[in-house]
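A.,

Following up on our hallway conversation. Structure tokens first:
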């Protein structure tokens, strides 16, 4: 079972910053999950919310700032400035860095609250530019974004993201739409759902696993990956099972 660091090593470092990504890489997990959105001037940036209020010292919508303006805000706010100034990374900066590692990246297209139009295409172009096509899996709560990715390049790996209520017959659904994976929230997930995915050849990558009981259960059920704020803990438990 693979371990993805959710928004980087966000259990210890400010989420979706280069620091959180580098720290995840240091502990030796297999992958990183991150969120992308578009600035006013069309730059793909790595940030979770549509607004910058929760994670930076600024306020307002990501889409109302140019990247130059956005880069002045400190995304290190969550840990009270403990880690100094941490800019909102561009996705290009991330791609440049990750291309020098063995890490796999789960890029979540944040397009459910506000639909950016060109976000899928611009993100895919950067992935191609840095030679990451085989090291990226796309996911989104907005499955139309995944359909759009498949339309642009049917070979890209896509995972259908679902909230904790999940989706009846998820394996069949993913197979029917050509998605390679199912990304359910852990809380409502059942063994039947996992089995249904396996029967349809669909991988199951579950979020957000922050307790040992859930980790053990998903391991027993044969899930493919866990997405966690605490990659170090998950990794060392899984290593002990080898
Ligand atoms: O991709 C899994 C997880 O990140 C989805 O929820 O809100 O943390 O982006 P959220
Ligand atoms: Ca996410």
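Then the amino acids I'd put at each of the 242 positions:
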């Amino acid at each position: 079972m693979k371990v993805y660091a959710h928004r980087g090593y966000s259990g210890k470092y400010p989420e979706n910053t280069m620091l959180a990504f580098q720290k995840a890489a240091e502990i030796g997990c297999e992958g990183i999950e991150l969120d992308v959105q578009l600035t006013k001037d069309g730059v793909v940036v790595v940030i979770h919310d549509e607004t910058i209020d929760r994670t930076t010292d600024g306020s307002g919508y990501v889409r109302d700032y140019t990247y130059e303006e956005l880069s002045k805000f400190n995304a290190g706010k969550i840990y009270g400035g403990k880690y100094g100034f941490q800019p909102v990374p561009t996705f290009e900066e991330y791609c440049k860095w990750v291309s020098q590692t063995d890490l796999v990246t789960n890029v979540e297209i944040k397009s459910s609250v506000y639909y950016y139009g060109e976000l899928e295409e611009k993100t895919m172009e950067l992935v191609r530019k840095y030679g990451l096509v085989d090291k990226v899996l796309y996911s989104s709560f907005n499955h139309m974004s995944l359909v759009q990715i498949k339309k642009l390049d049917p070979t890209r790996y896509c995972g259908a993201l679902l909230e904790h209520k999940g989706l009846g017959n998820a394996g069949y659904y993913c197979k029917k739409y050509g998605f390679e994976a199912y990304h359910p929230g852990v809380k409502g997930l059942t063994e039947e759902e996992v089995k249904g995915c396996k029967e349809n050849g669909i991988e199951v990558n579950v979020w957000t696993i922050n307790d040992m009981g859930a980790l053990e259960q998903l391991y027993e059920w044969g899930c493919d990956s866990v997405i966690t704020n605490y990659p170090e803990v998950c990794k060392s438990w899984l290593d002990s099972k080898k």
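The first strand starts at residue 2 and ends at 6. Curious whether your intuition agrees with the design.

B.
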